[in-house]
Amino acid sequence: MIRRNLINRIFASGPLILLYYLSISEVDTNLEKLFEVFSLNSQIIIIYFWIIKRPSLMGTEHIFFAGLINDVVMGFPLGISSLSYLVACFVGNYVRNKSVNTTIASDWFTFFIALILTNLLFFSLLNNFSEVVTSYAKIGYNTFFTLFLFPVFWLLFNIYQISFLGNQDA
Amino acid sequence: MSVSRDDFSIAFRSALLQRGASQKFSILSLIIVALIIFFLDVYGFTAVKTARSFINDVVYRVTYLVSAPTRLFPNINQGIANHFNLKKENEKLKQVIERYKALDLNLEYIANENKNLKKVLDTEDVQSVSNIVLAKVLVDRNSPFLKSIIINKGSKEGIIKGMPVTQNKYLIGRIVETNYLSSRVLLLNDLNSRIPVTFDEKSTQAILTGGGTRMPTLSYLPEDYEFVEDITVFASGKDGIFNAGTPIGKTKANGEVKLFVDPNQLSFVTVNLIKPKKEVF
User: Does B71 contact A at CB distance below 8 Å?
Assistant: First the structure.
Protein backbone atom coordinates (compact mmCIF):
# COMPACT_ATOMS: atom_id res chain seq x y z
CA MET A 1 0.00 0.00 0.00
CA ILE A 2 2.80 2.38 1.00
CA ARG A 3 4.75 1.37 -2.09
CA ARG A 4 1.77 2.02 -4.35
CA ASN A 5 1.28 5.41 -2.73
CA LEU A 6 4.91 6.25 -3.35
CA ILE A 7 4.69 5.20 -7.02
CA ASN A 8 1.52 7.27 -7.44
CA ARG A 9 3.27 10.26 -5.90
CA ILE A 10 6.23 9.86 -8.26
CA PHE A 11 3.91 9.71 -11.27
CA ALA A 12 2.00 12.72 -9.98
CA SER A 13 5.26 14.65 -9.66
CA GLY A 14 6.22 13.76 -13.26
CA PRO A 15 5.03 16.99 -14.92
CA LEU A 16 6.65 19.14 -12.24
CA ILE A 17 9.94 17.25 -12.47
CA LEU A 18 9.84 17.67 -16.27
CA LEU A 19 9.21 21.41 -15.88
CA TYR A 20 12.10 21.84 -13.46
CA TYR A 21 14.37 19.63 -15.54
CA LEU A 22 13.67 21.58 -18.73
CA SER A 23 14.32 24.82 -16.86
CA ILE A 24 17.57 23.87 -15.20
CA SER A 25 19.23 21.40 -17.58
CA GLU A 26 21.00 21.93 -20.87
CA VAL A 27 18.25 19.92 -22.54
CA ASP A 28 16.22 22.18 -24.71
CA THR A 29 13.54 21.73 -27.25
CA ASN A 30 15.32 24.16 -29.47
CA LEU A 31 16.49 22.01 -32.37
CA GLU A 32 18.29 24.75 -34.26
CA LYS A 33 21.14 22.40 -35.12
CA LEU A 34 18.77 20.30 -37.22
CA PHE A 35 16.43 22.96 -38.52
CA GLU A 36 17.60 26.56 -38.18
CA VAL A 37 14.22 28.19 -37.53
CA PHE A 38 12.88 25.58 -35.14
CA SER A 39 12.46 26.55 -31.54
CA LEU A 40 9.80 25.62 -29.03
CA ASN A 41 8.66 26.92 -25.66
CA SER A 42 7.87 23.57 -24.09
CA GLN A 43 7.56 24.95 -20.56
CA ILE A 44 4.49 26.99 -21.50
CA ILE A 45 2.84 23.90 -23.01
CA ILE A 46 3.53 21.85 -19.87
CA ILE A 47 2.24 24.57 -17.55
CA TYR A 48 -0.89 25.26 -19.60
CA PHE A 49 -1.86 21.63 -20.09
CA TRP A 50 -1.46 20.60 -16.48
CA ILE A 51 -3.07 23.75 -15.07
CA ILE A 52 -6.13 22.97 -17.18
CA LYS A 53 -6.20 19.24 -16.50
CA ARG A 54 -4.67 18.76 -13.06
CA PRO A 55 -3.94 22.05 -11.30
CA SER A 56 -3.10 20.20 -8.11
CA LEU A 57 0.05 18.83 -9.79
CA MET A 58 1.38 22.29 -10.69
CA GLY A 59 1.82 24.52 -7.68
CA THR A 60 2.05 28.16 -8.68
CA GLU A 61 5.10 28.52 -6.43
CA HIS A 62 6.84 25.80 -8.42
CA ILE A 63 5.96 27.56 -11.67
CA PHE A 64 7.38 30.78 -10.22
CA PHE A 65 10.65 29.10 -9.20
CA ALA A 66 10.98 27.23 -12.49
CA GLY A 67 10.73 30.63 -14.22
CA LEU A 68 13.44 32.13 -12.01
CA ILE A 69 15.76 29.18 -12.72
CA ASN A 70 15.08 29.47 -16.44
CA ASP A 71 16.01 33.17 -16.33
CA VAL A 72 19.32 32.42 -14.62
CA VAL A 73 20.24 29.65 -17.07
CA MET A 74 19.19 31.60 -20.15
CA GLY A 75 20.64 34.93 -19.03
CA PHE A 76 17.37 36.88 -19.06
CA PRO A 77 16.48 39.48 -16.41
CA LEU A 78 15.26 37.71 -13.26
CA GLY A 79 11.50 37.28 -12.99
CA ILE A 80 10.64 37.69 -16.66
CA SER A 81 10.01 33.98 -17.34
CA SER A 82 8.15 33.66 -14.04
CA LEU A 83 5.84 36.45 -15.13
CA SER A 84 5.14 34.86 -18.49
CA TYR A 85 4.58 31.42 -16.93
CA LEU A 86 2.20 32.93 -14.36
CA VAL A 87 0.24 34.65 -17.13
CA ALA A 88 -0.16 31.28 -18.88
CA CYS A 89 -1.19 29.85 -15.53
CA PHE A 90 -3.75 32.62 -15.05
CA VAL A 91 -5.31 32.07 -18.49
CA GLY A 92 -5.42 28.32 -17.79
CA ASN A 93 -7.12 28.91 -14.45
CA TYR A 94 -9.66 31.24 -16.05
CA VAL A 95 -10.44 28.78 -18.83
CA ARG A 96 -10.82 25.97 -16.30
CA ASN A 97 -13.21 28.06 -14.21
CA LYS A 98 -15.33 28.96 -17.23
CA SER A 99 -15.51 25.60 -19.00
CA VAL A 100 -17.19 22.37 -17.99
CA ASN A 101 -15.63 20.00 -20.48
CA THR A 102 -12.66 20.61 -22.73
CA THR A 103 -11.57 19.07 -26.00
CA ILE A 104 -8.28 19.17 -27.85
CA ALA A 105 -9.69 21.88 -30.16
CA SER A 106 -10.94 24.11 -27.35
CA ASP A 107 -7.68 23.70 -25.44
CA TRP A 108 -5.69 24.51 -28.58
CA PHE A 109 -7.67 27.68 -29.16
CA THR A 110 -7.40 28.90 -25.57
CA PHE A 111 -3.70 27.98 -25.57
CA PHE A 112 -3.29 30.32 -28.54
CA ILE A 113 -4.66 33.19 -26.44
CA ALA A 114 -2.43 32.23 -23.50
CA LEU A 115 0.63 32.00 -25.76
CA ILE A 116 -0.02 35.39 -27.37
CA LEU A 117 -0.46 37.07 -23.98
CA THR A 118 2.59 35.32 -22.57
CA ASN A 119 4.88 36.19 -25.47
CA LEU A 120 3.54 39.73 -25.65
CA LEU A 121 4.42 40.32 -22.02
CA PHE A 122 7.77 38.53 -22.25
CA PHE A 123 9.08 40.34 -25.32
CA SER A 124 7.68 43.76 -24.49
CA LEU A 125 9.40 43.62 -21.07
CA LEU A 126 12.58 42.29 -22.67
CA ASN A 127 12.63 44.98 -25.36
CA ASN A 128 11.76 47.89 -23.11
CA PHE A 129 13.65 47.12 -19.93
CA SER A 130 16.73 45.13 -20.91
CA GLU A 131 19.62 45.42 -23.32
CA VAL A 132 18.89 42.05 -24.89
CA VAL A 133 17.96 42.43 -28.55
CA THR A 134 15.62 39.83 -29.99
CA SER A 135 14.70 39.07 -33.56
CA TYR A 136 11.00 39.37 -34.37
CA ALA A 137 11.33 36.55 -36.91
CA LYS A 138 12.66 34.24 -34.18
CA ILE A 139 9.79 35.22 -31.88
CA GLY A 140 7.36 34.46 -34.70
CA TYR A 141 8.89 31.06 -35.41
CA ASN A 142 8.95 30.22 -31.71
CA THR A 143 5.28 31.14 -31.29
CA PHE A 144 4.28 29.27 -34.43
CA PHE A 145 6.06 26.02 -33.57
CA THR A 146 4.89 26.13 -29.95
CA LEU A 147 1.29 26.57 -31.11
CA PHE A 148 1.62 24.08 -33.94
CA LEU A 149 3.01 21.32 -31.72
CA PHE A 150 0.61 21.86 -28.83
CA PRO A 151 -1.77 19.05 -29.96
CA VAL A 152 1.15 16.58 -30.08
CA PHE A 153 2.07 17.39 -26.49
CA TRP A 154 -1.62 17.41 -25.55
CA LEU A 155 -1.95 13.83 -26.79
CA LEU A 156 1.27 12.69 -25.09
CA PHE A 157 0.33 14.27 -21.77
CA ASN A 158 -3.19 12.87 -22.06
CA ILE A 159 -1.76 9.38 -22.55
CA TYR A 160 0.45 9.94 -19.50
CA GLN A 161 -2.54 11.14 -17.53
CA ILE A 162 -4.75 8.20 -18.48
CA SER A 163 -1.98 5.64 -17.99
CA PHE A 164 -0.45 6.82 -14.74
CA LEU A 165 -2.77 9.26 -13.04
CA GLY A 166 -6.24 7.95 -13.91
CA ASN A 167 -8.69 9.44 -16.36
CA GLN A 168 -10.03 12.19 -14.19
CA ASP A 169 -10.09 15.80 -15.31
CA ALA A 170 -10.03 18.67 -12.88
CA MET B 1 -26.08 40.61 -19.70
CA SER B 2 -25.30 41.49 -16.10
CA VAL B 3 -25.25 37.80 -15.22
CA SER B 4 -22.58 37.07 -17.83
CA ARG B 5 -20.54 40.04 -16.59
CA ASP B 6 -20.80 38.64 -13.06
CA ASP B 7 -19.69 35.26 -14.35
CA PHE B 8 -16.72 36.85 -16.04
CA SER B 9 -15.65 38.80 -12.98
CA ILE B 10 -16.07 35.79 -10.69
CA ALA B 11 -14.01 33.54 -13.00
CA PHE B 12 -11.41 36.30 -13.46
CA ARG B 13 -11.09 36.98 -9.75
CA SER B 14 -11.03 33.32 -8.94
CA ALA B 15 -8.27 32.67 -11.50
CA LEU B 16 -6.15 35.44 -10.00
CA LEU B 17 -6.79 34.98 -6.29
CA GLN B 18 -7.73 31.33 -5.88
CA ARG B 19 -5.37 29.11 -3.92
CA GLY B 20 -5.59 25.35 -4.32
CA ALA B 21 -4.85 22.71 -1.73
CA SER B 22 -1.16 22.54 -2.69
CA GLN B 23 -0.79 26.26 -3.43
CA LYS B 24 0.26 28.65 -0.71
CA PHE B 25 0.23 31.79 -2.82
CA SER B 26 -2.25 33.21 -5.31
CA ILE B 27 -1.18 33.99 -8.89
CA LEU B 28 -1.65 37.71 -8.25
CA SER B 29 0.75 37.75 -5.31
CA LEU B 30 3.35 35.80 -7.27
CA ILE B 31 2.96 38.12 -10.28
CA ILE B 32 3.62 41.08 -7.96
CA VAL B 33 6.70 39.36 -6.48
CA ALA B 34 7.99 38.51 -9.98
CA LEU B 35 7.50 42.14 -11.09
CA ILE B 36 9.40 43.43 -8.05
CA ILE B 37 12.28 40.99 -8.70
CA PHE B 38 12.31 41.94 -12.38
CA PHE B 39 12.56 45.68 -11.79
CA LEU B 40 15.11 45.28 -8.99
CA ASP B 41 17.24 43.21 -11.36
CA VAL B 42 16.78 45.48 -14.37
CA TYR B 43 17.64 48.65 -12.49
CA GLY B 44 20.72 46.94 -11.06
CA PHE B 45 20.59 47.45 -7.30
CA THR B 46 23.87 46.32 -5.74
CA ALA B 47 22.25 43.90 -3.31
CA VAL B 48 20.30 42.24 -6.13
CA LYS B 49 23.41 42.08 -8.29
CA THR B 50 25.34 40.31 -5.53
CA ALA B 51 22.43 37.95 -4.86
CA ARG B 52 22.09 37.24 -8.56
CA SER B 53 25.79 36.53 -8.88
CA PHE B 54 25.55 34.02 -6.03
CA ILE B 55 22.38 32.40 -7.47
CA ASN B 56 24.04 32.22 -10.91
CA ASP B 57 27.06 30.38 -9.51
CA VAL B 58 24.87 27.84 -7.70
CA VAL B 59 22.41 27.31 -10.57
CA TYR B 60 25.18 26.96 -13.21
CA ARG B 61 26.84 24.25 -11.12
CA VAL B 62 23.54 22.43 -10.64
CA THR B 63 22.79 22.76 -14.37
CA TYR B 64 26.15 21.24 -15.19
CA LEU B 65 25.51 18.27 -12.90
CA VAL B 66 21.92 17.78 -14.03
CA SER B 67 22.95 17.86 -17.69
CA ALA B 68 25.61 15.17 -17.24
CA PRO B 69 23.46 12.32 -18.64
CA THR B 70 22.55 14.32 -21.73
CA ARG B 71 26.22 15.04 -22.35
CA LEU B 72 27.13 11.38 -21.95
CA PHE B 73 24.91 9.97 -24.73
CA PRO B 74 26.21 12.09 -27.60
CA ASN B 75 29.78 11.33 -26.41
CA ILE B 76 29.19 7.57 -26.60
CA ASN B 77 27.67 7.99 -30.04
CA GLN B 78 30.57 10.14 -31.15
CA GLY B 79 33.07 7.65 -29.70
CA ILE B 80 31.66 4.81 -31.80
CA ALA B 81 31.61 6.96 -34.93
CA ASN B 82 35.19 8.10 -34.26
CA HIS B 83 36.35 4.52 -33.93
CA PHE B 84 35.04 3.66 -37.40
CA ASN B 85 36.47 6.81 -38.94
CA LEU B 86 39.94 6.30 -37.48
CA LYS B 87 41.72 5.31 -40.68
CA LYS B 88 40.20 8.09 -42.72
CA GLU B 89 41.01 10.57 -40.00
CA ASN B 90 44.60 9.37 -39.81
CA GLU B 91 45.12 10.04 -43.54
CA LYS B 92 43.54 13.44 -43.19
CA LEU B 93 45.75 14.30 -40.23
CA LYS B 94 48.87 13.29 -42.16
CA GLN B 95 47.90 15.71 -44.90
CA VAL B 96 47.26 18.43 -42.33
CA ILE B 97 50.69 17.82 -40.73
CA GLU B 98 52.36 18.14 -44.12
CA ARG B 99 50.54 21.41 -44.71
CA TYR B 100 51.53 22.72 -41.28
CA LYS B 101 55.16 21.77 -41.86
CA ALA B 102 55.13 23.89 -44.97
CA LEU B 103 53.47 26.74 -43.10
CA ASP B 104 55.95 26.44 -40.25
CA LEU B 105 58.81 27.24 -42.60
CA ASN B 106 57.19 30.53 -43.45
CA LEU B 107 56.29 31.28 -39.87
CA GLU B 108 59.75 32.16 -38.61
CA TYR B 109 60.29 34.55 -41.50
CA ILE B 110 56.91 36.21 -40.94
CA ALA B 111 57.46 36.43 -37.17
CA ASN B 112 60.81 38.18 -37.65
CA GLU B 113 59.34 40.51 -40.20
CA ASN B 114 56.47 41.29 -37.85
CA LYS B 115 58.86 42.03 -34.98
CA ASN B 116 60.87 44.40 -37.14
CA LEU B 117 57.77 46.15 -38.40
CA LYS B 118 56.51 46.60 -34.85
CA LYS B 119 59.84 48.14 -33.90
CA VAL B 120 59.41 50.52 -36.78
CA LEU B 121 55.91 51.42 -35.64
CA ASP B 122 57.11 51.74 -32.05
CA THR B 123 54.34 49.49 -30.76
CA GLU B 124 56.29 47.13 -28.59
CA ASP B 125 53.73 47.11 -25.78
CA VAL B 126 51.96 44.03 -27.04
CA GLN B 127 50.10 42.23 -24.22
CA SER B 128 51.61 39.10 -22.78
CA VAL B 129 50.28 35.91 -24.29
CA SER B 130 50.62 34.11 -20.97
CA ASN B 131 47.92 36.34 -19.54
CA ILE B 132 45.11 33.91 -20.27
CA VAL B 133 42.72 31.74 -18.31
CA LEU B 134 41.63 28.33 -19.52
CA ALA B 135 37.97 27.71 -18.75
CA LYS B 136 35.56 24.84 -19.15
CA VAL B 137 32.16 25.37 -20.72
CA LEU B 138 29.59 24.58 -18.03
CA VAL B 139 26.39 25.27 -19.90
CA ASP B 140 25.84 25.81 -23.60
CA ARG B 141 22.10 25.73 -23.62
CA ASN B 142 20.81 26.81 -26.97
CA SER B 143 18.29 29.61 -26.81
CA PRO B 144 16.58 30.94 -29.91
CA PHE B 145 17.07 34.46 -28.57
CA LEU B 146 20.48 34.45 -26.87
CA LYS B 147 23.60 32.72 -28.12
CA SER B 148 25.78 32.46 -25.08
CA ILE B 149 27.72 29.96 -23.00
CA ILE B 150 28.57 29.76 -19.32
CA ILE B 151 32.19 29.10 -18.32
CA ASN B 152 33.55 27.92 -14.98
CA LYS B 153 35.84 30.89 -14.31
CA GLY B 154 34.73 34.23 -12.95
CA SER B 155 35.85 37.37 -11.18
CA LYS B 156 37.92 35.21 -8.79
CA GLU B 157 40.33 34.62 -11.71
CA GLY B 158 40.34 38.30 -12.66
CA ILE B 159 37.79 38.05 -15.45
CA ILE B 160 35.86 41.24 -16.11
CA LYS B 161 33.17 42.29 -18.57
CA GLY B 162 34.33 42.80 -22.13
CA MET B 163 37.32 40.44 -22.12
CA PRO B 164 37.77 38.52 -25.38
CA VAL B 165 37.27 34.76 -25.38
CA THR B 166 39.07 32.48 -27.82
CA GLN B 167 39.49 28.83 -28.68
CA ASN B 168 42.71 27.75 -30.37
CA LYS B 169 43.45 31.46 -30.79
CA TYR B 170 40.27 31.92 -32.83
CA LEU B 171 37.89 34.53 -31.47
CA ILE B 172 34.54 33.16 -30.27
CA GLY B 173 33.03 36.02 -28.24
CA ARG B 174 33.35 38.24 -25.23
CA ILE B 175 32.45 38.22 -21.54
CA VAL B 176 29.12 39.91 -20.82
CA GLU B 177 28.40 38.81 -17.28
CA THR B 178 30.73 37.85 -14.45
CA ASN B 179 29.99 36.06 -11.21
CA TYR B 180 32.51 35.01 -8.58
CA LEU B 181 32.94 31.49 -9.97
CA SER B 182 31.43 31.68 -13.44
CA SER B 183 30.93 34.00 -16.39
CA ARG B 184 28.66 34.30 -19.42
CA VAL B 185 30.22 34.60 -22.87
CA LEU B 186 28.26 36.28 -25.66
CA LEU B 187 29.05 34.40 -28.85
CA LEU B 188 29.83 36.08 -32.17
CA ASN B 189 26.63 34.81 -33.79
CA ASP B 190 24.36 36.37 -31.16
CA LEU B 191 22.02 39.12 -32.30
CA ASN B 192 23.61 41.51 -29.79
CA SER B 193 27.17 40.93 -31.01
CA ARG B 194 28.95 43.65 -33.06
CA ILE B 195 32.69 43.46 -33.72
CA PRO B 196 34.96 45.63 -35.88
CA VAL B 197 36.86 43.43 -38.29
CA THR B 198 39.32 43.73 -41.11
CA PHE B 199 40.00 41.47 -44.07
CA ASP B 200 41.42 41.11 -47.60
CA GLU B 201 44.52 42.69 -49.16
CA LYS B 202 43.12 46.22 -48.94
CA SER B 203 42.49 45.80 -45.19
CA THR B 204 38.81 46.51 -45.70
CA GLN B 205 37.09 47.52 -42.48
CA ALA B 206 33.65 46.22 -41.54
CA ILE B 207 31.46 45.26 -38.63
CA LEU B 208 30.79 41.59 -37.98
CA THR B 209 27.14 41.44 -37.00
CA GLY B 210 25.55 38.44 -35.31
CA GLY B 211 22.08 37.61 -36.51
CA GLY B 212 21.12 34.82 -34.15
CA THR B 213 21.85 32.40 -36.97
CA ARG B 214 24.83 30.06 -37.33
CA MET B 215 26.93 32.51 -39.33
CA PRO B 216 27.38 36.22 -38.59
CA THR B 217 27.40 38.69 -41.47
CA LEU B 218 29.64 41.55 -42.56
CA SER B 219 28.05 44.97 -42.57
CA TYR B 220 29.06 48.65 -42.98
CA LEU B 221 31.27 47.76 -45.93
CA PRO B 222 32.54 50.22 -48.53
CA GLU B 223 30.03 51.05 -51.25
CA ASP B 224 29.71 48.52 -54.10
CA TYR B 225 31.89 46.06 -52.26
CA GLU B 226 31.87 42.64 -53.89
CA PHE B 227 32.37 39.63 -51.67
CA VAL B 228 35.08 37.14 -52.47
CA GLU B 229 34.81 33.70 -50.97
CA ASP B 230 37.36 32.18 -48.58
CA ILE B 231 39.08 35.30 -47.25
CA THR B 232 40.14 35.23 -43.62
CA VAL B 233 38.44 37.79 -41.37
CA PHE B 234 40.41 39.19 -38.41
CA ALA B 235 39.42 41.37 -35.46
CA SER B 236 40.60 44.89 -36.24
CA GLY B 237 41.00 45.83 -32.56
CA LYS B 238 39.58 49.30 -33.25
CA ASP B 239 37.12 48.95 -30.39
CA GLY B 240 39.94 48.61 -27.87
CA ILE B 241 38.49 45.29 -26.70
CA PHE B 242 39.77 42.62 -29.03
CA ASN B 243 43.35 41.96 -30.03
CA ALA B 244 44.01 43.17 -33.54
CA GLY B 245 44.66 40.25 -35.86
CA THR B 246 42.73 37.59 -33.96
CA PRO B 247 41.35 35.30 -36.67
CA ILE B 248 37.58 34.85 -36.71
CA GLY B 249 36.48 33.00 -39.84
CA LYS B 250 36.33 32.85 -43.64
CA THR B 251 34.06 34.90 -45.86
CA LYS B 252 31.33 33.40 -47.99
CA ALA B 253 29.99 34.75 -51.26
CA ASN B 254 26.80 36.06 -49.65
CA GLY B 255 28.61 38.20 -47.06
CA GLU B 256 28.31 35.70 -44.24
CA VAL B 257 31.35 34.57 -42.28
CA LYS B 258 31.91 30.90 -41.57
CA LEU B 259 33.45 30.91 -38.11
CA PHE B 260 36.62 28.91 -37.50
CA VAL B 261 35.10 27.58 -34.29
CA ASP B 262 31.62 26.07 -34.37
CA PRO B 263 29.74 27.88 -31.57
CA ASN B 264 27.76 24.71 -30.86
CA GLN B 265 30.85 22.58 -30.24
CA LEU B 266 32.66 24.41 -27.47
CA SER B 267 34.05 22.54 -24.48
CA PHE B 268 37.17 24.49 -23.41
CA VAL B 269 37.87 28.14 -24.10
CA THR B 270 40.50 30.68 -23.12
CA VAL B 271 39.74 34.09 -21.69
CA ASN B 272 42.35 36.71 -22.52
CA LEU B 273 42.85 38.78 -19.40
CA ILE B 274 43.22 42.01 -21.30
CA LYS B 275 41.52 44.96 -19.70
CA PRO B 276 39.32 46.61 -22.32
CA LYS B 277 40.71 50.06 -23.09
CA LYS B 278 37.25 51.56 -22.77
CA GLU B 279 34.06 50.87 -20.86
CA VAL B 280 32.02 48.05 -22.36
CA PHE B 281 28.21 48.17 -21.95
Answer: yes
Confidence (pLDDT) at B1: 47
B-chain residues near A76 (CB < 8 A): 146
Q: Which domain holds residue B59?
A: 25-66
Q: Which residues of chain B make contact with A36, given a CB cutoff of 8 A?
A: 213-214
Q: What 3-state DSSP class applies to B272?
A: strand
pLDDT at A159 over 80: yes
pLDDT at A29 over 80: no
The verdict on B267 and B136 lying in the same domain is yes
Query: To the nearest whole angstrom, how far is the Cα of A159 from the nearest Cα of chain B?
Result: 24
Residues 9-48 of A with CB under 8 A from B: 21, 24-28, 30, 32-33, 36, 39
Nearest to A79 by CA among A91, A89, A67: A67
A90 in any annotated domain: yes
Residue A170 lies in a domain: no
> A133: burial class by Cβ within 10 Å (0-12, 13-18, 19+)?
middle
Domain that holds residue A146: 2-165
- Nearest CA to B14 out of B30, B26, B2, B32 is that of B26
Of A28-37, B121-130, B186-195, B225-234, the least confident: B121-130
Rounded-to-integer distance, Cα B75 and Cα A163, Å: 33
First-to-last CA distance in chain B? 55
A111 pLDDT higher than 90: yes
pLDDT of residue A46: 93
Q: Once rounded to an integer, what is the mean pLDDT over residues B81-90? A: 76
Residue A85 has φ and ψ, to the nearest 5°, of -65, -40
- For position B169, what pLDDT does the model report? 81
Residue B214 within any structural domain of the chain: yes
B245 in a structural domain? yes
Range of lowest pLDDT (A130-134, B33-37, B234-238, B276-280): B276-280
Verify that B153 and B102 share a domain, yes or no.
no
